[in-house]
Design a protein that fits this description.
Layout (H helix, E strand, L loop, with lengths): L2 H12 L3 E7 L5 E6 L7 H19 L5 E4 L4 H16 L4 E10 L5 E5 L7 E5 L7 H13 L3 E10 L10 H9 L2 E7 H8 L12 H14 L3
Parallel strand pairs: 3-4, 3-6, 6-7, 7-8
Antiparallel strand pairs: 1-2, 4-5
Length: 224
């Protein structure tokens, strides 16, 4: 596993973004782990988060793209922080773009924040986590309605590795349906391998009991 992935797992724990226990997801599923990107709230946290995304995007898609699109609302700070990190780490200038939930009819009009999309733009979409793929169902037509762009891929922070709307993972379903790659900085298998019965700052986050609950969860909801 790349060093930045190990660092990112520790970073999620430090920021209390990734937690283990008993949680009810929006889908109604009872999950032994929960990831909430809303836990990144300080400048230092957002700076580091942008760097992890930048490294993962560089590894998966290279730098041959023009726009980083972050769907409202959580995607807005993600796209800003990551474009800054790409500039800082790789000297590459890409534009950030996000959508509004409602079209603005005065001043900076339209549905987009940041850069406008232009015909021929190559776009990478950035999100926090995708469980069912429903967010892309909303985002994809918004992007395609603005200009004739090429979507190179999607990057999320954590691949939960569970069923989307079929027996396949949400990220795989996105690739099948829309024809572009979908990747994550880390996946849950990597998280489990790194944390299982290994102390981090004096605490074990995935002990035998949590591991048993995770295994049971994947027995029911794990993607094929």
């Amino acid at each position: 596993m790349e060093s930045y992935k190990r660092e990112f797992i520790e970073f999620m724990i430090d920021c209390q973004v990734l937690k283990f226990g008993e949680f009810t997801l929006k889908s109604g599923r009872k999950s032994p782990f929960f990831m909430n990107a809303g836990g990144y709230v300080t400048g230092a946290q957002l700076e580091r988060l942008g760097e992890y995304y930048a490294r993962a995007i560089h590894d998966c898609y290279g730098l041959d793209f023009d726009v980083l699109f972050g769907p409202a609302y959580k995607g807005i700070p993600l796209s800003v922080a990551t474009t800054m990190a790409i500039s800082r780490l790789y000297g590459k200038e890409v534009r950030y773009c996000s959508n509004r939930k409602e079209v603005k009819d005065h001043g900076d009009t339209g549905i987009l924040l940041g850069s406008k999309l232009k015909d021929g733009d190559r776009v990478v979409i950035i999100e926090d986590v995708t469980t069912s793929g429903k967010s892309i169902e909303e985002t994809y037509p918004i992007i395609k309605a603005q200009a004739d762009v090429e979507i190179k891929g999607l990057m999320v922070s954590l691949n939960r590795m569970e069923k989307g709307q079929s027996d396949k993972s949400a990220l795989f379903e996105i690739k099948e349906k829309y024809g572009f790659d979908a990747n994550a900085i880390v996946n849950m298998q990597e998280v489990i391998e790194y944390l299982y019965n290994k102390p981090f700052k004096g605490q074990i986050y995935i002990d035998d009991k949590i591991k048993e609950a995770i295994d049971a969860y994947y027995e029911q909801y794990g993607a094929r």
